[in-house]
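sanity check both lines:
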Amino acid sequence: MTTADTDLERRWAAFRRWQSYALLGMSLVLATAASELTPGAAERRAIAVLVVAALVLQVWWGRVVRRHPGPHPTATAYYAVRWAIGFALTWVNEFFAFYASTGYFDADEMIAGRRLRRIGPFACSVSVAGAQAGGMPFHSAGQWVVFAGLLLANNVLLTVVGRLAQQEEERSRARATTIEALQQALDENAALHAQLLVQAREAGIADERRRLAAEIHDTLAQGLTGIIAQLQVVANAPDPAAAHTHLNRAADLARHSLGEARRSVQNLAPVGLAHDTLPQALRETVDRWGERTGVRAEFTLTGTAEDLHAEVSATLLRIAQEALSNTSKHASASRVGVTLSFMDDEVALDVRDDGKGFDPLTPPERSGTGGFGLDGMRARAERIAGSLSVESEPGYGTAVSARVPLVRHD
């Protein structure tokens, strides 16, 4: 219940407590001011006795209602006695019809039973209509006709007002039910929100772990593999000049891997994209890979190159690096082609080799020193709403194709 509802309930309770006193006092003041309407001493004594009786009744009821609120037989008896006093006062002086109208306001709280509850306001309307018709008793047939019309009009008005009040009460109950349901939904949403925050945090931690694992594989693992390969050549090279060349390549790989590791920890773009565009970085990556492995490697750009979002560029470069690393470790290829294609709404990266190939339905199991391979490349593509497909056949090479949305740099 809102603060406004609480204030309204408090004011309504105060009105029900003091309404009888207020209406009785107002009726007495008006009757006294118009004392010429009750010229007889007997009428004045009757009014005095009835007013005192009404006050005593009201004081008594004020004590009873604190112990027994709500409709019950005692409350119904109080209502009937109060109506009788109001009717008698109105009979003596029509200004006391204001006091008699008290029964309009609290019949629902006083009278037990739906049928009796309808009789209460009707009985009050008799006193009110009688006063409106000129006061009781009536002395002509015309007054009776007027009284009948006023009685009908009063009860029609009571029925309409009662019906409107009932509809408003139903709407209030419906609103209360809706508010309660909304509050319950808010409480459930708050709990769900807290749960989602925990799940999002856990998902973020897991995603960050996967990212770091993939970055370490794509940087340190590939770099160390290249360094080992160069050092193996040095170990078997009889020519000091050739050994020096391979040592320089190993040193370059070590420096490159160190830079990649630092950027991976800081979640920055790969080293190749620090100053170059994606086509330039891919061309340099393919050229270095070809020099290091001795395999003929070519890069081709189709379409109009555009400045891509950093995440898109990094994803495609990492996929190309992983595909080339897999080729050098598993394919035994003599030729590799890397193609970057810019289309209307997507970018395609294709890495093809003429190596020994494999059956995509039964890929080799991951070894203890193996990397993320196809699963890692596919996860990278799907992370930016892309896809990755592999076509291969034993003895006929392998083609890795990645398709990602064309998202331009902000």
User: Anything to note?
Assistant: The chain is about 70% helix and 10% strand. The longest helix spans residues 141-236.
